[in-house]
């Protein structure tokens, strides 16, 4: 993964996601754990408004296709593709958590390809 700068994550989100990852396996879980390990963990109340957090509605652009999508980032048991609710353990969810508006990340996909995603907006 390649990020423009460090990730920022609220302490509650960090602890809940870490607990999920302790039970998860596979390359995606390892990638997300790696991202979390380099994140700046901040108290919930000081998380900047433009940072993707759990339950944020985030609009992002697939830089290669130019397509823009909006999803709400949720925990796995709340995921519902029909409601555009994406799990933090899904490839896109793992890529977006902790990014700020304007940041770009190159995120590897299970098929060996890579997605370049740019955060366009965040709503809490």
H-E string:
EEHHEEEEHEE
Overall shape: globular
Our count of helices gives 3
Q: Within the largest sheet, what's the order of strands?
A: 1-7-8-4-5-6
Proportion of residues in helical segments: 10-25%
Describe it for me?
The chain is of the alpha/beta class and 124 residues long. It has a single domain (2-123), classed as Transcription elongation factor, GreA/GreB, C-terminal domain (Chitinase A, domain 3). Helices cover 24% and strands 31% of the residues. It has 3 helices and 8 strands; from the N terminus they run E-E-H-H-E-E-E-E-H-E-E. It has helices at 11-23, 27-37, 91-96; strands spanning 2-3, 8-10, 40-42, 57-62, 68-74, 85-87, 104-108, 114-123. Strand 7 and strand 8 form a beta hairpin. The longest helix has 13 residues, at 11-23. This is Nucleoside diphosphate kinase regulator.
Set out the fold topology:
Blueprint lengths: L1 E2 L4 E3 H13 L3 H11 L2 E3 L14 E6 L5 E7 L10 E3 L3 H6 L7 E5 L5 E10 L1
Parallel strand pairs: 2-3, 5-6
Antiparallel strand pairs: 1-7, 4-5, 4-8, 7-8
Labels describing this entry:
124 residues, Chitinase A, domain 3, 6-stranded mixed sheet, two-stranded parallel ribbon, 24% helix, kinase activity, kinase, Tscrpt_elong_fac_GreA/B_fam, transferase
Task: Provide a concise account of the structure shown.
With 124 residues, this protein is α/β, with parallel strands linked by helices. It has 3 helices and 8 strands; from the N terminus they run ββααββββαββ.
């Amino acid at each position: 993964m390649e990020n423009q700068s460090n990730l920022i994550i609220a302490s509650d989100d960090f602890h809940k996601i870490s607990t999920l990852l302790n039970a998860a396996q596979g390359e995606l879980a390892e990638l997300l754990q790696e991202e979390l390990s380099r994140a700046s963990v901040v108290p919930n109340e000081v998380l900047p408004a433009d940072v993707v957090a759990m339950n944020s509605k985030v609009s992002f652009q697939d830089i290669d296709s130019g397509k823009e999508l909006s999803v709400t980032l949720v925990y796995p048991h709340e995921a519902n593709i029909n409601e555009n609710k994406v799990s933090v353990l899904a490839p896109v969810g793992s890529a977006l958590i902790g990014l700020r508006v304007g940041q770009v990340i190159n995120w590897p996909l299970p098929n060996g390809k890579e997605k370049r995603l740019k955060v366009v907006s965040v709503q809490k």
